[in-house]
Design brief:
mainly alpha, 79% helix
Length: 112
Amino acid sequence: MTAQLATGGQAETQGLKSEVVKVALRGVAGAMRGGGQKFVTMADGFLDKRAADVIRRDSVRIADAIDDVANIPDVATHQVRSEVYKRLSAIMDDGTANVIANAVEGVLWVLL
């Protein structure tokens, strides 16, 4: 019985962490929408000029990709960078996708 309680408690904690990550990701996606300047400001130090320009130009599609990651059941913080990268690399060059994915992860850690 104790093992079940420990497992149940761990599952509950993991579910709570996943929900916190989802809320933070939705906040990041919201900051990305509308031209991306809000996100660029939040991610100061994580972005190079090229990535910032791509965000400003393509903020809605990037925000949609981040929302897709937020919709993954039981998403964990360690998955965020790779899942964001995977989605962004489909719509932009790999180097810029990597810089933006790292920035999303960095901002996420600041928010958490």
